[in-house]
UniProtKB/TrEMBL annotation:
<dbReference type="InterPro" id="IPR004653">
    <property type="entry name" value="DusA"/>
</dbReference>
<keyword id="KW-0820">tRNA-binding</keyword>
<feature type="site" description="Interacts with tRNA">
    <location>
        <position position="99"/>
    </location>
</feature>
<feature type="site" description="Interacts with tRNA; defines subfamily-specific binding signature">
    <location>
        <position position="301"/>
    </location>
</feature>
<feature type="binding site">
    <location>
        <position position="141"/>
    </location>
    <ligand>
        <name>FMN</name>
    </ligand>
</feature>
<keyword id="KW-0819">tRNA processing</keyword>
<dbReference type="GO" id="GO:0050660">
    <property type="term" value="F:flavin adenine dinucleotide binding"/>
</dbReference>
<protein>
    <recommendedName>
        <fullName>tRNA-dihydrouridine(20/20a) synthase</fullName>
        <ecNumber>1.3.1.91</ecNumber>
    </recommendedName>
</protein>
<dbReference type="GO" id="GO:0000049">
    <property type="term" value="F:tRNA binding"/>
</dbReference>
<dbReference type="InterPro" id="IPR018517">
    <property type="entry name" value="tRNA_hU_synthase_CS"/>
</dbReference>
<keyword id="KW-0521">NADP</keyword>
<feature type="binding site">
    <location>
        <begin position="19"/>
        <end position="21"/>
    </location>
    <ligand>
        <name>FMN</name>
    </ligand>
</feature>
<feature type="site" description="Interacts with tRNA; defines subfamily-specific binding signature">
    <location>
        <position position="185"/>
    </location>
</feature>
<comment type="similarity">
    <text>Belongs to the dus family.</text>
</comment>
<comment type="similarity">
    <text>Belongs to the Dus family. DusA subfamily.</text>
</comment>
<keyword id="KW-0560">Oxidoreductase</keyword>
<keyword id="KW-0547">Nucleotide-binding</keyword>
Length: 336
């Protein structure tokens, strides 16, 4: 059925795919866009230094087919963030998102990411500087607490302070960030999920757009969360099991017509691969993001094995897809 969210002010971010380092590059986003036309997409986090002192084109180039897409920035200096946000707007991004949720030590050394939650006024200053520099929305992605701080009042006061600077969209990863002792992977799994904190934020700040993130795997779960908040952000499930996005458009955006089949998506992906090969792109740089397309289908393991063979991928021969598909016709193979 089509779900018409009672709380959502804008359908744009009703369902989104999280910014994920080393994963949500332009090839990944193009692939996800082949599956869903309406899901809101995010870049990997890009630091202000990478834009102000590095190769801007390498970090910001994307195709119109990927839109709508948001640029996530990492930084903590208001003027630098304003300049980087302006670059993002000039390159055509639909939103600028500030990372206040990453707990990695590398990010901590730069004094941004989740540790910024301990300095809400600084985050407010950063948001104001970016909002003064651009006309596209400026949003914040954050955790619900840092280290041993478990009280709801911490995230409530953080959101309240940043909202006063004009931010009206908050993406809430509903776990604490443990800055010492846990790896980024463990930070995605060990701190308990507290979805009720995101629900309370929506209750306490009804005019804000609250998007929930963390551990969500199915569209039924998405629908359940949308009874309480404005949007749902999928993370690693959308990467490892990308076909979960296939019914998003009809179910949550009112799109007409059936979802694309996996075969249709693969056919369009091959066309994209051909165009990128002509530009000198390594085929494996694209296919590493698509290996979960046939997850759950008989023969998927063989399909993945062929399309992850680095030697075959280096040959840049698209007939590799024919061999890969032959495994999908082996109905006797165990479904994996």
């Amino acid at each position: 059925m089509n779900f018409q969210g009672k709380l959502t002010k804008s359908t744009g971010r009703r369902v989104s795919v999280a910014p994920m380092m080393d994963w949500t590059d332009r090839h990944c986003r193009y692939f996800h866009r082949l599956i869903s036309r309406d899901t809101w997409l995010y870049t990997e986090m890009v630091t202000t230094g990478a834009l102000l002192f590095g190769d801007v084109a390498r970090h910001l180039t994307f195709t119109a087919e990927e839109a709508p897409v948001a640029l996530q920035l990492g930084g903590s200096e208001p003027n630098d963030l304003a300049r980087a946000a302006k670059l993002g707007e000039q390159w055509g991004y639909d939103e600028i998102n500030l990372n206040c949720g990453c707990p990695s030590e590398r990010v901590q050394r730069g004094a941004f990411g989740a540790c910024l939650m301990n300095e809400p006024q600084l985050v407010a200053d950063c948001v104001k500087a970016m909002r003064d520099a651009v006309t596209v929305p400026v949003t914040v992605k954050h955790r619900i607490g840092v280290d041993a701080v478990e009280d709801y009042s911490f995230v409530r006061d953080f959101v309240g302070t940043v909202a006063q600077a004009g931010c009206d969209v908050f993406v809430v990863h509903a776990r604490n960030a443990i800055l010492k002792g846990l790896s980024p992977k463990e930070n995605r799994e060990i701190p308990p999920l507290k979805y009720e904190y995101a629900y309370r934020l929506k209750h306490d700040f009804p005019s804000l757009e609250i998007i929930i993130n963390g551990g969500i795997k199915t569209l039924d779960e998405v629908e359940a969360h949308l009874q309480h908040v404005d949007g749902v952000m999928l993370g690693r499930e959308a990467y490892h099991n990308p076909y979960v996005l296939a019914d998003v458009d009809t179910r949550f955006y009112g799109a007409a017509g059936p979802a694309k089949t996996r075969e249709q998506i693969e056919s369009e992906l091959i066309e994209y691969c051909a165009a990128e090969l002509a530009r000198g792109t390594f085929l494996g740089a694209i296919m590493r993001h698509a290996l979960g397309l046939h997850r759950g289908v008989a023969g998927a393991r063989g399909w993945r094995r062929v399309l992850s063979d680095s030697k075959r991928l280096a040959a840049a021969d698209l007939s590799i897809f024919d061999e890969a598909r032959s495994h999908l016709r082996e109905s006797s193979e165990i479904i994996d």
